[in-house]
Structure formats: structure tokens, C-alpha cells
Batch of 2 targets.
Target 1
Amino acid sequence: MQFRNNRSSIILAAGLALLLRAETCQAQQQPAATVDPYAVNNGQIPSRAEYDGPLWRFNHDYPQTQPKADQPWQKVLHGKPLTKDNAHAYIEALKEAVAKDMRVMVTRPKAWNATEHNWYSMPWAGDEVEKAGWEGREAIYGTYTGQILPASTYAESGLKVDIRNYATIYYNDVAAYTLHRVWQKCLPGQGTCIPTLDNDAAQFGEGSLVVKSAGVNASGEQWPVMQGAAKWQIYRPPFDLHGTVPGKPPVVSDIYVGIFDIIVKDSVAAPETGWVFTTLVYDKDAPGKDAWDKMVPLGAMWGNDPNVNSARHPGQPLLETYINPAAPAYAKVTLGYGGRMSGPFDIAVKTNVDVDGKIVAKLPSSSCLSCHGTASFHPGSYQALTFFYPVQMPLTTPWHMYTPGSDEWNEWFRNRPGTVPQSKEPGAVALDYSTFMEAALMNYAAVESEKKPQLLKGAREDFWATWRNWQKARRH
């Protein structure tokens, strides 16, 4: 689907999108036959009059044998688990390990070619899958629609407009071998694409790296902290605080890069979870020759600190999260439960929620690991298993949270290996902290359930309406 449309085709596509979105949740969604697991993008291509640069390219030539993992960042550890004392050096070592490639990706978007740099992307993510609430990958820079935050979230740092983040995600060769194992029965143009999840196929090897970089629509004039940030162009419809505006055609827009996550499978550093989540944030006042140099550590997280009940003992220090005291202030506004690690655009802080019958204006409710630790899939039923936040089901307005610090709440803040799902549902498969893998599998399931509707026969609710509601809820 990497081609250019003329103006009439764009107008036609916008009209079709409007008709589709005008249907109710129970109406027919995008036909299964039109969803290509290896689509490069969602089919919305800017004309040359709108954009005359290169389009994003999809590298899915995954390694078919396990690559050797070079892990220079482990030198910081001296063979011992990560601590708050060496976490900053560990983050810097990770940044240095990816700097040659990622400096290009962040600061020179028109020169970036993932294939040349041996970085890979996920199938079942290019096409829009309406039934699953998935908006697909956009054509210019391969980004995905992310969370929406009102300007009031960052009022203290001068944000003047509501923002949405748009993220791009890549896997190194070690991590891409897992993509090969899961999708080994799926070939471009084959017509079927069935995942393989037995024999721990979804488990990532040691040295796997996943990078996610995200930008927002606020320029330095609209948000002073973004002055001098790297600029990308994307092709998306406008949004409001409710989500993507229905019926509006995509436009070429500028976004400004604010975060860069480096997620690494390192069981030496993180023996209980296997993963270290790190985040770099843009600091306009940091020294350096370009915007990549000005991406500084916000922090790292390698465990959920299950022995620290932050609700009942708010002064107790965390031992498995490190936050850089010198990180810019705006980046700390949305830290998670008890100060656990969460990036600026991740919405770990939920607003106007019900806690024990009282409305709480702002409640830190999540973290990097607690959110990603919910990632799982049920191959037999496709049912949604564990929501990303400690919320009582079904979702209501306002959300009814489990009591912070209670046994139910604490289920989200336990340390589990990536082979163990949080869900107790028989048959649930843990996805090794990969929420993107979960999303791709649910896109597959949305298509497959059209072919085999008997799989959802007898469901107590409109299953896909629930899943779409979950996806929307996590972005607000």
C-alpha cells in the first residue's frame, strides 16, 4: 500500500471513512479481506502537492535464526542487578549503544531507512482495523496515534494547545527474531497469517531492544519546552479531546519529538521481570549539537516495587525505579503510582476517577511495567483479558478504581517473569511485556473473528465494542 493517490482518490477515501464511522458500533466494520497483515501503511497517502519527500518503509525481513546479542550496557552492572546508584549510567550506556542509528531516525527523518540500519517493525499494524479500534500506521513516518492530553496537564510549563502523541516503534535484530517466530506462518501476499504462540514463541531473547520515539503537535511557540526539538511530518486527520475527528481527511502536520524510550530484555539487570524500561526526554537547555544530544534520561524502571505499598506508606522510597533529579520539570508531571516510572505522554495519572465513592481529581494509577505487564492473549477465545489500569470492570464513567494499596490494586504492581500472565484465565498466553504484540494479535483476532464468528458465540457482551472502549480509554 505504499503508493500515492491523486486528489480525487483522497476525497473518495475520506468520504468512505465518513460513511464507515457514521455506522453504529454494531455495524459492519472493515471487511476482513481488505486487511493486509503486511500493509506498509493505512492507505492514506499524501499527494505530491502536499508532501514531496520519501514515504516510510516497512522492514519485515526478520532474522530466521537467533542473532548474537551484543550488550555493552551490561558493563555497568558488573554482573549484578541494576540499582538506583548505577541506573543513570545504564541509561546513558543504552543511549550510546543505539546512538549511531537513532540520531538519524530522530534528527534526519528524510534520511532514515530502517532496513539499512537493521531495525524492524510489527505486522498486523499497517492497515486500519476498525473492529479493533486500530487506526493503522501513517504513511510519511510510520507513526501510530497515541494518547491525548489537555493543555491544562502542562499549564505550568506553558502549553497552549491540547496535544496528541504520535509514536514510531522499532525492534533490533534480536527482538525481531521473536517477531519471526510469532509470525513465521505469515508471508506477504499469502492470504492467511496465523500467529504461533506455543513453545514460548512470544518470549524475547536476552539483548532484545525495543525503541519508541514520540512527538506531539505542539511547537516551541505553543509549548516552550519544545523549542529546538526535532521535527517530523506525519499524515493524520485532526483530533480533539475525544479522539480522531470522524470524517475529516488527513493532512500533513508537523510534530516535535519529546520522548525516546529504550526497552531492553536484560535478566541480569532485572532478574524478576527480565526487562528494563528507560525513557529519555527532550531538554532544550541540555548541552549538545543537535536534538538527539538534548534527549536526557528521565529515568528507568526494572521492577514494580511490590514490597512498597505507596498508598499506605507514601514516604517509603522505591528501590526499582530511578528518576533523574536533573530531568526537566515538565517530564515529571505524569510520573506513575508512588512516583514509579512513566513517560510524559503515557497518562499514568488518571483524572476524575471514583475511589471508594469519592471523586479524585488526579490519581497516579499506572507505570511502565504495570501497564506492559498486562500484555496477554487468549488464542482460543480472543477475549480481552486484563485492562491496563487497576480499574473495576466493566468500565464506567467515572472509572471505579480498586482501592489504592489494596490486594486487588496490587495485582498490577507485582513482579512477574514475562512467561506468566497477570490474568488467571485458563489458556491465557503471556506476551513478555509487549503491549504492541498484544495489539497486533488483537488486530489478527478482529479479522479472524469475522471468518469464524462462532468463536465469540454466546459472549456476554459486545466483545469488540469492549475492546475498542479499552483502546480509547488508555489514550485519554
Note: The first strand starts at residue 144 and ends at 149.
Target 2
Amino acid sequence: MAVTTPPAQPPAVRPSGVHAVLNGVLVYGTLALIAGGIYSGLTWLTGTLSGGEDPVAGLVAALTVGAVFRPVRLRLQRAVNRLLRVEHDPYRVADRLSRTLQEAVDPAEGLATAVVLVRQALRADGVAVEVHGGTVADGELGERSVETPLVWHGEPVGRLLSSGPAPSPDLLNLLARHLAELAHAVRLTADLRRSRERILTTREEERRRLRRDLHDGLGPTLASLAMTVDEARLRLERDPEAVEGLLIRVRDQMGAAIVDVRDLVYGLRPPALKDLGLAGSLSSLADAPGPRVDVALAGPLEDVPPAVEVAAYRIAQEALTNVRRHAQATTALVRAEVVPVKGVGPTVTGGGSGGIADAATAGGELRLSIADDGIGLPEKVRGGVGLLSMRERAAETGGSCTIGPRPGGGTEVVARLPLETEAP
């Protein structure tokens, strides 16, 4: 976000210092020349037509000059403003800001252009805009800078910092509203870029896992199967009795290959999620031997996105495996709840009955916790593969997973998985 490309056309700014003096000299100096010329011309013309001095000539010239004074001054002011790229009206500054930003290639470049324009409009020594992920600045900020929050639909999205002469509060707030929309667009672009990078990384890791499983597991099994079939074919004429044992071995190897293929398919998406859904799958995890496991579910779990379903199921599965192996617990509780974001209404979707998604899934999160009454965590916790996999699965969905002591004894795993997932 270090782009500092200036606008293609120099923006209009508010007058300051020499600009204000030069503006006034050009406007009123030219206006005095025009008024003097009109007055002198009309006085001479009236005197010429009347054949001598006419006392009414001065009055007519004065009225004429008075009548054209304001229209001529306004036209002169606009012409000089265009010449000096000066704008007195703050709303015109905001309008030029909006039009300049519309020509930007992307939000980051638009923000850099906007910072230059805002600095000139505020007559500031330096201006900086801080947004999520970086800062764009123009000029030098002093020790005492004016801070203006950038708020988009009630949500803080950044800060506007300016130093120098005290700016007009009206103009500052007006420009801040325009910058807030741009800062929000910059943040969305950065979030989308990070989401795409995360999705690409996850997809590449999944490809590596499949390649490793195919190369190290299914590949050798199929190669051994082919060699056994060749051996049986060669012995068929010389030693028919030995062929039966080879065929039995082929059958066993085929069974092992089928198991490997099934494991690969199950690794992509657990079959329990397809058959039972998230609620049923979490409930089925409680049926395994070991301590009693209670399951508490709340909210529309049937509307949870597939990626979040898989992450929640795998986290719960790994956590319960640890409970049964290491916790020495008598009971455990699995709790899953869809928590909506306040103020989020129904969202229209492309499918489903009626095309309406529940408000909870439009911008909420799935909160998953697995707690037990066991011996708890050791003083020095070593991050094993299981604990690491739970955190990674939560991070893949943009969420978080924490493992810590449970109040009252035992261990508690808490995962917070956002329900808004982005497509690559």
C-alpha cells in the first residue's frame, strides 16, 4: 500500500497564503479594468451621441457597471480558480475527490491519490491515512497532529491524521466520510487477497497430501498386486496348486487397495457429514467407547458452510480422541452453537428453499467447545500433531482454536469459526 501515484489531472485545492493573495489580485484587478473600461466607454459613447457633456451619461455608465459587476466577478472567479486550481467551496472539493477516485485503477492507488488531494485541500503540512494493513502518507506529520476517525456504516476502518494550520471542521469531516468509504474498500481488497493466498496454500497442501498418500500407499499396493498377478500367470502351467495361494494374496491386496481408496475419500470429506449433517455427525462421535460424552447443539447448524462443517467435525473428533486416550475423564461435553452477528439480516442466496439464508450464517460464527473433567493439561504442554492440526483447521477457515484448562478442572478446547467464507 505504498503507492503514491498522483492524479492524472492536478486536483483543485483551497486557497492559502500566496494563492489567496494572487487569486484576489487577479480577480479584482481584472474586474477593476473591466469596470473602468465599461464606464469610460459608455461615458464617451453617450457624450459623442449627445454632442457634448451630458450629466446623465455618468449615471447610465454607473448603473451599467453595477448591473454587470456580480455576473462578471463570478465568471472571473471561476476562471481564476481554474487557472490556479483553487476551490473555495468545500463541496466542490469533495466532488472533485470523488471523481478523481473513480478514475483510480484499484483502491490502494486511489487512496494514495486521495491523500495527496486531501493534504492540498486542508492546506496541511502532512496528511496520513491509517487503514488495516498499512499507512499512506503525503508530506511530514508534526508532533501534534489532528486525528479524525474514519467510520463506515458505524464501523471504524481507519484514521485520518493531519498536521499544520487548523483545518475547517466541516471540510475535515466531509473529506473523512469520503475517505472512510475508500479505506473500507482497501481493507476489503487486502482481506480478499489474504483469503485467496490462504485458499491457494490450503489447496496446495491438500494436493501434496494426496500425492503423498497415492505415492506411498496406494501406488505400492497396486504395484505389488500387478507383480502377484504376473507370478500367478507364470505358475499356472508349471505349478497350478500354488496359484490358489497367490490368488488369495491378490484378494487381500485388493482389499487393502480398496481401504486405501476409501481412506483418501474420507480424508477429503467425512462420510458422516454427508449422511448425517453436522449435528448428527457430532452426536455420532459420542457413541465410541470411553467416558460418557454429552452433546449440546444450538442454532441452525444445517446452514453452516461445508468448509466450516469439516473443520468443526475434525476438531471435535481430534479433541474427543485426546479425551479418551489421555484425559482419564469420566464425562465430556461437546457444545456447538451458531452465534449471529448483531444487526445482520436475512441474506439472499442463489439456492435453497426460497433463496433466503438464515441471518446467523450471513455474518456469524460457529462456536465449538469440547470440555472434560479429566486430569487437565500438564505444566509443560508440547504441541503435538493433534493439537497443531486443530489450530490449523480453525485457521484455514479464518477462525481460531484455543486449548487450555477448564474452570473447575479438566481441559477445554474452544474453536470459533466464522461462517462467512470467500471463494477463490
Note: Confidence is low (pLDDT under 50) at residues 1-16, 343-362.
